[in-house]
Amino acid sequence: MALDLTIAGTIVALSIVLSGILIGLGRALGSHKVEYFGREELIQAIINAALVGAYATITLTATQISAEISGDGLCTGGSAIENLLCTYEGVSGSTYSLLTAAVDLHSMAAYYQSIVLDFSTFSIQPLAHLSSVSMMLEAQVLTLQQLLLFSEIHVQLLSFFGPQLLTFFFPLGLVFRAFFSTRRLGGFLIALSFGLYLLYPSMVMVFPQPDLNETEVSLAQMNNNTNYTTTPILDLNDNYAIAGKMDNMTNLTAGNDFTGDLTNSVQHLTYATSSLAIFIILAPLFSFIVTLIFIKEVTDIFGGEFFYSVGML
Amino acid sequence: MAYIETLLSSWLETLKSAGTMISMLLIILGGLIYGISQVQPGETRGKWQTTGIAIVVGGVLIAAILGAADLIQEVSSNLFK
């Protein structure tokens, strides 16, 4: 949604006329407060007119600066915020793939952990010790789901704000800045639009993007290993066959080490989850704090008085 | 948006005509007060004259800024281009 700047121009003209009346009345009535308020309004109206007149130039410059800011990944074509959106869409896709692989792995571990073999004289649960691994994998799955949620929220917010910052929020800020009663709000909106358009994506791109290739390959190898595939339910009646399969799964001579491979996969998953957590939670949080401080500082510049702090009459 | 634009334009025109009237009123009033000051006793004449001049100057300032409002806006909008 783009905002027309004709309104801002009309409000600027209104401010100039109002300031003239206030200066004249203040001088006529001998009221310094009214006169100074009028002078401040005239100065602000001149600055507003300059900003409105330079809107196209400012927008073009900001777009060009933004295009220079790009990360190290595959998304380098558009503005900084478009590149960030592209990056987070990729991260969401990778996180989802990782989540499905982790669910499969958890299903496998939980399945084998729960198998009880009943023989004539005794019963045994050979892989009962995998219960802790199963709990770890369950926690990993829940964590990945939360990370996917945050990543998707980020994608949606970037999709909403990205196209609107310079076409809606910046002009809206100029309109509000022209009124003395909404000057601070206008300054805030101007600072918000530039902070989110330039500073926020730059700060996020400083952080290393998660490299999930190794983890995805490791999990795929584990999930697709024919030695570890789960026995069809109909064949579960044959205890000896299941026992033989489970023996084969831990046959180091044949190169099968189910527990070892499972532990290896959990380690890969932990590495991937930690790098995702840094990029999806820590990086935006840090960047948001830096951007907030920037917005606060620039709001004071754009939204405050310059010479005469008289506030409302 | 068109309604807001129309509303603001009407306020601008109202303010311009109000400003013109206020300006003329102040100039006339200032002149009157300055004229009355001439018949005041010596101890109060200065005060009346100052007041009269201040009111005239106020009226002139309003007229000047109102007259130059469009020019100020045009020049200001080209400052950072």
Notes on the structure:
The complex is a heterodimer of chains A (313) and B (81). With 313 residues, chain A is an all-alpha fold. Chain A has one domain (54-302). Chain A has helices spanning 6-29, 32-53, 55-68, 80-114, 131-178, 183-206, 213-223, 239-249, 258-303, and strands at residues 117-118, 123-124. Chain A has a two-stranded antiparallel sheet. In chain A, a hairpin with a 4-residue loop joins strand 1 and strand 2 (123-124). The longest helix of chain A has 48 residues, at 131-178. The radius of gyration of chain A is 31 Å and the shape is rod-shaped. The two termini of chain A are 35 Å apart. With 81 residues, chain B is an all-alpha fold. Chain B has one domain (18-77). In chain B, 89% of the residues lie in helices and 0% in strands. The longest helix of chain B has 36 residues, at 2-37. In chain B, 23% of the residues are buried. The mean pLDDT of chain B is 91. The chains are: A mainly alpha (313), B mainly alpha (81). The interface between A and B is large, with 37 and 38 residues.
Give me some keywords for this one:
heterodimer, A: 313 residues, mainly alpha, two-stranded antiparallel sheet, 9 helices, 75% helix, rod-shaped, B: 81 residues, 2 helices
Question: What is the gist of this entry?
Answer:
The complex is a heterodimer of chains A (313) and B (81). Chain A has 313 residues and is mainly alpha-helical. Helix content of chain A is 75%, strand content 1%.
